[in-house]
Amino acid sequence: MIAGLNDVQGYNPIHLARLEPFMRALNGHPEEYHQNDVFDTGLESPLLDLLGVRYVVMPVTPAPDEVEPRLSRDMPIVYADADVKVLENEHALARAWIVHDAVQMDTQQALAQIAAGTIDPRLTVVLEEAPPLVNEQPAESDQARITEYSPETVRVEIEAGAHGMLVLSDVIDPAWHARVDDAPAEIYVADGSLRAVAVPPASTRLSFSTRPPRCRLAQRSPG
Question: What's the predicted TM-score (pTM) here?
Answer without folding.
Answer: 0.88
